# Entry
Amino acid sequence: IFNQHSYWTKQPVDAVKYFLKKYSNKEDRVLDPFCGSGMTGIASNMLGMKCILGDLSPACLHISEGYNTKFDFLDEDIEKFLVKLKESIGDIYLTNCKHCGNTAKIKFEVLGEFFKDKNHNIHSDSKDYFLSIKYKKNFNSKLNGLKKTLEFDKHQVIQICYQCKCNKTKLFKDPDSSDQNLNIKLKKICKKKPDAIFFGKETKRNIKKKILKVYQLYSTKNLYALNLIKDQIEKIDNKHLKKFLLFNFTSILFNCSLMSRYRGYENTSIKMGTYYVPPLIKDNNVLESFIRKVKKTLYANRNIYKNISTNLVKVQSIDATRMNNIKTNSIDIIYTDPPYSDIINYSELNLVWDSWLSFKSNYKNEMVICEETGKSFKNYFVLFEKFLNEASRVLKKDKKLVLIFNHPRIDHWSELQKVIINSKFKILDNLEPFRIVSNNKTSSQHKTNKKTQSFIAIVLENKKKANQIKLDIMNEKTVNQIYKIALERNYTSKSQQYDFFINYSLNRYNLNTKEIFNLLS
# Structure
């Protein structure tokens, strides 16, 4: 399920199912107003529960629909389409074997960085870097002392990885004149689309690399292939087939970009939650990536929906701060995973999907913190308060809101605590935290001292009236006592202890004290 389509944060389906079974019944109606990739819908469908998925992001709605659609079309229609693609762009992923001279299939190309000095001399140590990775040797860059005086010039193919019938293993070669001429030819005829301009803080890192628009995030060859695939999909009349193919198309857009890192092995890797372009790029074969994805997704979709006769999930555009299209007291349980303040800037990252699909997006009420786009810390929690008010309105009395959240900084938890306490929800007092743990981390979380990416599930009960809770004041002694309890309960890692501390304190102690900030910052 996870690997059908990439997204910046995904809730494990089994975790969603756990909470739906624990706090609701099969006849209940589920809501997720920050649906992201639509995992709440998958879980609801598996449990036979009606569900509404919503999000501000058109990209999220597209991904959620792809995940939560039981696709219906003939296998032969898929095969016809894929055969047509191979005929159209298969030749651009061919090269001549350096051993036997026969035509061979390109698996991927390795792109390096090239710089120029004031005299327009070109400098690059990418080939040396590649060889150091391939042969597991130390690499000492010759450009370390020079890079401040050099200007980025271009990304260029330095090695081609291919498979030839004359050899059982993958082979590498320098690009020859035929390879270079093909790239020159493609550059002349390649569309410079999509041409949406990047915005926000994440994309600033790539200005020096001359990546200002979405199409510049791709090599010429892959941009040409992607545009051709997209054009062919748009010509399809069968709505189910078209939606299915677009879902697969968008699922490869990041892995076939300049963000894909060469690491000396076959698996593709990008840094999640950022637009990081590595110094050595594994430029994947778009055609093979698309075909492989189509076959895997078709298999997964049929397995997920083989025992589901009716799709119970409705996907619609929802602003969680004003859910006007959802009736009062019509929802039995809310399971949702809202943005964790400043951890990920979704609108910036979703621009790639938005632009390829020509989506018109309005992220004015996006609930994130990003100073570059005018979304402040204060505004985030104002919107969070509005969301909780709306959630209380649409959710029936005494029903549950399962809120997934985490943040490495205590001031964010303090503000969230304040917003919850002032809402019409009551925090269910649970000594042991509900922890959802993943080994995947966003780039922001790599900077923290947390060993893993973990989320806390905060279960809120809708009381339909303001709370009368008085929180105790916390000091250093209290903090130490809570950590002692955590150790007694076998919470050994810093990540586990931090989550225990937050969960234990939310309904007992006021987190807004200087002592806590100093101790836990």
The radius of gyration is 25 Å. The CA atoms of residues 364 and 374 lie 10 Å apart. The mean pLDDT is 93.
